[in-house]
## 1
Amino acid sequence: MTRFTRWTALTVAAALLTAGCSGGSSEDGSGKDGKSGGTALDWGRCKATGDGPAPGGDWQCATLRVPLDWSKPDGSTIGLALIRAKATGDDRLGSLLFNFGGPGGSGVSTMPSYAATASELRERYDLVSWDPRGVAASEGVRCRDDKSIQAAESSVDGTPDTPAEEQAFLDDAADFGKGCQEAAGKLMAHVSTTDTARDMDRIRQALGDDRLNYFGISYGTELGGVYAHLFPKKVGRMTLDAVVDPSADTMGHAKNQTRGFQTALDNYLKSTGRDPEQGSREIAELLERIDAEPLPTSSSGRELTQTLALTGIVLPLYSKDGWPALTSALKAAEEGDGSELLALADGYNDRDTSGRYGTTTHSQRVISCLDDKQRPTPEETKKLLPEFEEISPVFGSFLGWDTAGWCHDWPVPGQHDTPEVSAPGAAPVLVVGNTGDPATPYEGARRMADELGEDVGVVLTWKGEGHGAYGSGSDCVDSTVNAYLLDGTVPEDGKVCS
C-alpha cells in the first residue's frame, strides 16, 4: 500500500547520492554514559551506504544522540544521522536545516543532490539535513522484507471489490503493522512529528545557532509548523514550501489529495489537447480493465496490477517534466503492455532493478500512524466512496480506501486529529503555495498561514505545476525566497508569482 504524500525529489530523481554517517560515538552529542547530555558534534567524512557512493569531500556527517522518550530526557538515547556542507562565502549567517518530506524521507541521502538548487543559499548558510528518528540511518524501521513487499504488490487490491478482496486488504494492513512493531520495538511509540520537532531544537543547539533557520518541503512544512508551535521564540528564518493543510483530518487530507491529483491530471490532459473529463473517464476505464486482467510486462514474472498502474500514473504528475513519460506509458498500457507504468510505479515505490525496496514507505507509515489517532472503519469509508469517486474517477476509490487501510489495527494509538501549529510571537514564516500542486493542494498554504497566526504566516503564491515551487523554474519564487532567507526581506502577504 502506498500513500501519495512524498515530495518528488525523494521519488523521481534517478541519481540520488546515498550517503552514510561516519558513525558517531556515544560522545557525539551525549554524555559518555550514553545519556543525553552535551550537544557537541564530531563531524567527519561521510561513508557510502548501499550501492551509492559517498558524497564528495565538501560533505561531512555526524551522529547526534537525543532522548528516545522526550518525557524522560535523562533516559535512553537514539542516534540521529546528520549531514552538512559548510557555507562557501565569508558572510555566514549560520545553518539552514532542510527536511525534504515524507514523512520517512532521508535528508542525509537527499541533501547532496539538492545542493545545486540551494547553491545561492549555501553562500551564506551551512546546508544541513538529517534522517529523522525512525528513518534510514537514524534507527530506520523496515517492516517487511523485499519478497513479502513484492508479493503484496501483486496480490493485494488497493480498491477491493469483493468481500474476499476486502478481507485480504485489511489482513495485509494489519500484518504490516505487526511487522513494524516487531522491527521498531520501543521506538514505535516515539517517532511522532512532535518527537522530531523536539529533535530539531536539539539539532539547533548542537549547530550553535540561537534560532532555527529552516526549509521544510511537503511533510516538512507540517514539521516546521509543529516546531514553531513548540518553540516560537526560537524560529529564525523559516520557509515552508508545498504546504500540508494543518486543519485537515484523515478524511480531509484524503479528499485534498484526491482533488489535487485530479487537478494535476486535468492540467496534464489539457496539455495534450484532450478534454479532461473524457480523458479521465478513459483512464478510469483502463484501470478497470487492468483490475479485471493485469497486464503483462517485460519484468520477469511480474504483471501490472490496478494498484501498480495507478501508482505509475501518480509519479509523473509530481512534476511537469514527467508528463511525456506518462503519455508514453498510458499509450503502451492501452496497447496491452504494462512495462512502462510498472517502471514508473517502481520509481515511486523505491524498488531497484534487482528487486530491492527502500524503506521510505515503512517509516512514513510508522510516523503518520503515530501522529494520527483517527482510524476510519471500512464501513465508514465505504459510505464516503461515492464522494471520493465524484471528486475523481481515477484516484477517488484508491485514496478513499487508503483511509481505512493505512493504519488499520495499528499496534500503537495515534496522538491527535490535526497537528497544532499556532505560533504566536514567532518571527514571520514564509509559506509558499503552488496552485498546480497535486500532493499538497494550494489551499493548504493559506490555512497554514492562518493557523500560524496573525503577523506570523506570510503567503507566497506560484501559479505553476508540480509538487513544490522553489527551484521549479520560477525566478520570481526563487528570488523572493532567497531575499527572505539571505537578507530577511519579508514579502507582502499574498504576493503572486505567475
## 2
Amino acid sequence: MSARGALLQPQDAGYDEARRVYNGMIDKHPALIARCADVADVMAAVDYARQEHLLLAVCGGGHSGAGMGMCDDGMVIDLSLMRGIHVDPEARTVLVEGGCTLGDIDHATHPFGLALPSGIISTTGIGGIALGGGMGYLSRRFGLTIDSLLEADVVLAEGRLVKASAEHNPDLFWALRGGGGNFGVVTSFLFRLHPVDIVQAGPMFWELDDAAEMMRWYRDYMPQAKDDMYGFFAFLTVPPVIDHFPEHLHGHKMCGIVWCYTGAEAGAEAAFQPVRDFKKPALDLVGPKPMPAVQSMFDGLYPPGLHWYWKADFVKELPDEAIEQHVRFARQLPTMHSTMHLYPIDGAAGRVEQSATAWNFRDATWSMVIVGVDPDAANDEAITSWAKAYWEALHPYSAGGAYVNFMMEEGEERVRATYGPHYERLSKIKAKFDPNNLFRVNQNIKPAARHPAPE
C-alpha cells in the first residue's frame, strides 16, 4: 500500500516505539504499523488489511487496558499523527481528529472558557474514550462524552468514508455512542462544548480506619447532590510527592474523594461544607483550578509504561456488606499505584434515555474500577491476583456489566452483559457495516448471522 505516513515493519527504526502502548504489561508485535497522516491513509490501510486478510487493530492514544490498540502479527492503524483540532466558539463545538488526546482538546478549548466532558488522564486518546462512553469530572453536570457527540467521520470495513449523525446513518451514529471500535475507524469527531473555566476541585483524604464511615456517607450524599457537584471515591497509597502531599503521609494507605464543583465560585464553600462538617479530612487540597489542570491532575502519577491489570463493574447500590469488602481489600493494596475508584455516572448522564445510545447502564449510580498497577513486571502476579480477588468479592453486588474501556479481554459473555438488551441491535448494525468482523480487536460485538432469503 502507498501512504503519506510511515509504514513500519519490525526491522524499521521507530517500530518499537510505535508499538508501545500505555499499559506496560502489553507487549505485542504487529507485522505492520501504518502511521496514518490523513483520511486517505486510513482508507488505504483498511483496504489493504481487508484484501490481505490481516488481523487489524486501531490505535489512537493507546490507553486500552487490554492493549486492544495493538495486535500480534497483523496490522495496526496508528492515528497518533492525526491531531488537528478546530474550535468554533460561537457554535460551541470542536472538531477533532481521531489521534487527539484529551490534553490536546483541553488545550484548544480552555482559552474560550469551554470544555468537553471526558476522562481523568490527559494522555488518553479521544477515540477510545468517546466510543466507549466517556466518564469524568463533568459527567454529572453535562453527561458522558458520547452525549456531546454531534457527528463523526468513519472509514468503514469496505474502505469507504461516511458521516454518522442524527441525519446521516443514524443507526451507525447510535452504535458508535458506546459500542466501541466495532464499526469502523473514526477519523474525526464533532462535539458540543460546555461553558467550564475555573472549577473548585481537588482531593480530600481520610485515614483508612475512617473508610467504612466515609464510604457510607459518600453512598448517601452523592446521589442526592446537585449536578454541579462531582466526586469519585478512591482507596490509595499516598505517593512520595513532596510538592503535593505532606511527608508524614507518604506511603500511607488512605481513602479519599476527588472533587470537582462546577457551580458558581461564591457557592463553593457551602457546597463542600457537608463533607467537612461530617469528618475533617486529614488532607484537604480542594481549591480553584483551571479545568485542564484538573483533568491532568494524575498524569504524573500514572505515566505511560506502568503495568496495569483492570477489573470493573457497574454498581447501582452500595450496601454495608459491600463496603466491608471494599475496606478489606483496601487494607491489602499491593503497590503504591494500585487503587479502586467509584465514578459517579448519575446526574445528567443518568437522565439520558436508556435507548438513546448504545451505552446500556444509564440507571447505574457508579462505574467501579479496580486496578493493580506497578512499574515492575516482577509484580504482575501480585497486582493481578489482588485485582481479581477484589473484583470477585464485589461482583455479587454489581449491576452485571462493566464500562468497556475498563475491561481486559474477558470474553463474549462479559461483552453481552455490558450491552444487555442493546447487544442484539448492535449485532445487526455490525452485520450491516462490518459483516466479516474486520474490526474485531476490541470488546467485540459479533455480526448477526445472515440468513438466506426464502425461495
## 3
Amino acid sequence: MRTSENSADLVAAEDVLLFANAAITATGQREFRSGALDQQLSLDFLHTYVRVNYRRLYAASLALDINDHNAARIVLGLLATAGEASAEERRTEGRLIAARLARLPPQRVYRLFGEVRRAGINNRRTRAIMRDWLAARPDLGHDAVKYRSGVKTAARHVHLRCPQGAEPLAEVGAFLFRPGKLPRYEHPLLDAWRRAHYEQGAVAELPFTVAEGFAARHGMKREVFLKRAAPRMTRLERLRTHAVTQRPDVDLAAMPLTRLALYVLALPFERRAALRTELTGALRTAARRAAGKHAGSWGRVHAVLDDSFSSSGSGQKRRRPLAVALACHHLLEVLAAPGAYRGLWTSGRGDALLVRPWGPTPLGMRVLDALEPGPGGAEPDRLVIVSDGWDNAPAGLAGEVLRVWRAQLDPGRRTAVVHVNPVYDADGFDVRRLAVGVPTAGIRDAEDLPALVEIARFAEGRTGAAELHAYLDRRVALFLGEKATENETEKGAVA
C-alpha cells in the first residue's frame, strides 16, 4: 500500500513539474517548430488535466513565476468550476486569485473579465473578486479612458453602482454609460477626452494609446505628436517608438533585463556597435538588479547559449529565445564569482552584443568545451545550458556527452548541470529535454533563473514529492504575505 502511495506522489510531482514548465513558457502563440493551434490545444489539455486531478496544486501554481497568459487561464478555470471545490479550497483560491490579479497588468485583467462575462460566470464569489479589484484601482477614471470597453464590461457584470451627482464614481458612470450628458467633467482625464474631440491641445493630456487615435483624427504629424506625448508615455511605449525618435527618452538600465535584451536585438548591428558602451552598461546594470542577493554566489559558472537559427522564434515571438539567452548570459556573469564566468555561444561567436540567429545547433560540441576546466585547471561548479533542446549537429550528441560525463567522469556530481528551455514543445506537453537525469526547467524571463534552478532540482529525481509540496507551501505563503508554519511545511499541505 505504501509503495502505491509513493508512486502516486511521484506521478503527481512529475505532473506538477510538467505543468509548471508549460505555464512558464507557453503562451498559445506560434513557435519556431509548432503552430498556434497546436500550442493552444496542448495547453487546453494540460490545464484541464491538472485542474481536474490536482486542483489544489493547480491553484497553488498561481504563486509560481508563471506567465500572465497562463495565470489568467488558471483564474478563469478556477472561477468557472467553483462547484468542484470544497469551501476551504474556495477560500484559498479566492486569496490566490486576488493576489495574482493585483500583480497582473490591468489590460490583462480587463480582458480576463471580458472572458468571464462571455463564459457566463456570475456567482457571488466572482462578482466579489471583480468588485474588490476595481475598488483597489488607484484611478478608475484613468482606466475608464484607457480601457473603456474593459471597464464598461466589468461594471455591467458586477452591477457596479454609479450614483448620480459629482462623485468620482458618478462621473465614471456617466462617462461610460451616458456619454455627452455632462457639459464637463471634474476628473482631468475624463474632461481631456471630452475636449480632445475638438481641441488638438487636449490630445497630449491623454494616455498614449488613446491619444494616438485622436492625433490621427486631427491629422497631427507623427513626429510632433510623439514629442508632445513623450511625458505621458510609459517606458515600454517609449521603446516602441524608437524607430521614429532614434534615441528614446528612457533610462535603459531601469528596464527589466529580458525586455532590454529584446530591445537590443531589435536594433541593427551598426546601431548596436555605435551604442556598445551604453547598451552593455545597461544590460549589466539590469543583470545586477535581477541577481540581487544571489550575485557572486554561484562559484565557477560555464554556460552554453543557443544562438542557432531556431532562436529567431516566430512572427509572434520574434527573437524571444535569443533574447532569453542574451539576458541569461549577462545574469550568469553576475551570479558567478568575479572572473569565474565563461559563456559559449553555439555559433562560436565571442561578441554577445552582436549575436544573431544563425546556423545549426551543435550543443554537444559546446557542452564538451564548457566541461573543460577553466583558468587554473578548475572544473566549473555549474554548467547552465540555455537552449530549445533541438541538438542537431550531430543529433543527440549533447545528451550522450552529459550521460557519459555524469556516469564516468563526475559520478559525485561536482558540477551541477541544469538546462533551461525558453520554448514549449506542444507535441511533448513539456519543454524539450537533452538527457535523462539532466534537470530541465522552462524559462520565459531570465530574471526568474535563480528560482527556476531551484525548481529544476526536483526534476532531477534526487528529491521526493514531499520536498516539492513543502516548496510549493513556502511559495504560496510568501505570495500571500504569510509565514508558513513548520507543521504545514512538513505535511506539504498544498498537496
